[in-house]
Amino acid sequence: xxxxxxxxxxxxxxxxxxxxxxxxxxxxxxxxxxxxxxxxxxxxxxxxxxxxxxxxxxxxxxxxxxxxxxxxxxxxxxxxxxxxxxxxxxxxxxxxxxxxxxxxxxxxxxxxxxxxxxxxxxxxxxxxxxxxxxxxxxxxxxxxxxxxxxxxxxxxxxxxxxxxxxxxxxxxxxxxxxxxxxxxxxxxxxxxxxxxxxxxxxxxxxxxxxxxxxxxxxxxxxxxxxxxxxxxxxxxxxxxxxxxxxxxxxxxxxxxxxxxxxxxxxxxxxxxxxxxxxxxxxxxxxxxxxxxxxxxxxxxxxxxxxxxxxxxxxxxxxxxxxxxxxxxxxxxxxxxxxxxxxxxxxxxxxxxxxxxxxxxxxxxxxxxxxxxxxxxxxxxxxxxxxxxxxxxxxxxxxxxxxxxxxxxxxxxxxxxxxxxxxxxxxxxxxxxxxxxxxxxxxxxxxxxxxxxxxxxxxxxxxxxxxxxxxx
Length: 471
Ligand code: P70
What we know:
The protein is α/β, with parallel strands linked by helices. The protein has helices at 9-12, 35-44, 72-78, 89-101, 113-124, 138-146, 174-184, 208-221, 232-242, 251-259, 286-299, 310-323, 326-345, 363-366, 376-388, 397-400, 428-443; strands spanning 59-60, 106-110, 130-133, 150-153, 191-195, 224-228, 264-268, 279-283, 358-362, 390-391, 393-395, 416-420, 451-455, 466-469. The site of ligand P70 has 16 residues, from helix 5 and helix 6.
């Protein structure tokens, strides 16, 4: 018998194949517009993928935020919304879910993550304070700055190196943290801002060992630790996979153990929690809770809905129960990795190891001939859209913005374009189409020129900035 021509993914890797733990019950048609139409759409959008209309996008990898497919149980929950202004029963379900799976005592709902960031920043930060953290996130840092603080990066050096294979590139460097304390004094550090899987580093995890060391260190110094839990479930998966002693613990157990090392968390429920909108703040200290619960009525809504409808809170509570399913997390991260494997196999530069929510193309290497001032990551996102209607996101110099004190551009070491995978939405075939398109623009990269910024808004410029191609 002649050898078979086709091989499944599993066979290619010498193992049995696995599949997603769900089947599709409802579909949303998508289609690719023509290259001329895409060129026109890109011009209209000022070469910024945030300004494209989604109808002009074929495969949307802009973000994994609010783009997940909800389950039939979550949709059923939507019908059980208790839309009372105060004391909605869905809020109590949400409170129970957060208490059981994350383990925090007090919960304040918000409309999404940045609502919770505003509350925690305003509750804890005083003018002139310093907030150390494992790499900045755009909205998180901005809220810390608006509250009068300065963010200082204390992530390990490996996080800034796209080719370092360190298994926990999200770890905090305690020497760097000590140096910050020596400089500004522990009294001027309201908390350490710890992110579970570091978005801007490529979705890289923090180890349990590092979190334990950090906790012990902060206890000695009298500093609190608050967690950005947005993608902490994916972090738990990496701990289960890579850290000694965790292979036989469930995602739920690891999540709880990790959160127990922190004083509270803010959350963009639009990611791990599998909903299209929502967020929350959860804390153990009564004093912080009281401040946040009072402030939420100014900025978000009453403390039993915080900007969410009752039905949103119900879907969110159910999403929390579903997100800790080990099979779900495995399928989610492995899908991201599948795309990463294709690209690395074809020698396209990406951040390794592949992270939990996205593949990050290393635009500095991809377009080695385009200087950072000509926006290589932004250029890559534009080229990818032009080639195939695939939408991605700039995560480089445009995202890094300007130093608020000097007004100078920040030049981040990482100049990346993010291919972000929504949860339970796309198939392996979609990943193949994306990979081939990346390969196509990689093969013709020498002809590609950079961009010029022609409009720059004052805050979070990446969302609304406009560009023109350099000729
Ligand atoms: C993304 C989204 C949101 C986010 C996050 C982390 C680690 C907090 C938030 C805020 C959306 C986004 C936000 C800013 C720039 C680009 C994209 N991340 N912490 O796509 O939560 O969006 O609910 O207010 O990743 O990565 P929210």
